[in-house]
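Possible regression after last week's pipeline update?

I re-ran a chain I had predicted before the update to compare outputs. Posting the input and the new output here so someone can diff against the archived version. Not blocking, just want to make sure nothing changed silently.
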Amino acid sequence: MALTDLSAFRTSLQTGLAEAFGGTTSTVIGGRLYSLYRIVIPPGQTAAPAIPSTAVTLTNTDTGALNQLIQDFTPSNVYAVGFRLYSSNSPMTYYVIDRLSHMGGLSGIVTTAQTVNTAALTRHTSGLGVYAAIEVYTAIGTTVTTVTMTYTNSDGVGSRVSPAITFGGSGFGAGSGAVSRFIVMPLQDGDKGVQSVQSVTLAATTGTAGNFGITLFKILGIAVAPQEADQPVNFLSGGVINIPQIERTACISLLATASTNVAIGAYGAIQWGVD
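New output (post-update):
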């Protein structure tokens, strides 16, 4: 059953399940979106996940998933009902996502179409509400250019080409704040999601190859840490915009954006509830 009222929410909290995480700092550019997948360190993990090369699908068993310890509660449903977040140095907005698939090894100096061929979705398989993003693993060049992608939309229509967006230069994959930069790709008018991405094309070289890739993901919820402090945020105290249901095999990860240029830390815990 769903969490339809306050009583159901309180009951879900009685499970007392929580998974803590804590990560190293990373410099970010204020107002830009970043992936915390290779920054956040869940329990039992001693190093950041490796930079992907070939396209792979992801589950809760993968290194970097924030729900590695959650057990199978079938037929009950699992929800993310609260967070404890350390907002280091700046007010932060965190996006809770299901990281569906990723790949890397793309170059900032290649100007022909670079093959992506993202792995087939195993969750949210229609692609409805699924986004594609460029994830920067090592810094590309400072020359500003644009990038487009060719993809199949959630209606199964292929050969769609995204509008061109900025790539390269400060805030867009180069210099300070380059690593873990997460650039969400726009879609053609009318499209509602992405099933797969076939290629990306740079209009010109950025000047440095670096290493970037494409990540497919679905946003599940949003948590806001408006103060620079350690604080709980949940449905009762505010700060959590919704209470997302978590699929059993989901690879839960975080995106974050800060209000200023700072070095951030990602520390806290996610509280799970079961209906």
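Follow-up from reviewer: compared with the archived run. Residues 10-274 form one domain. Marking as no regression found.
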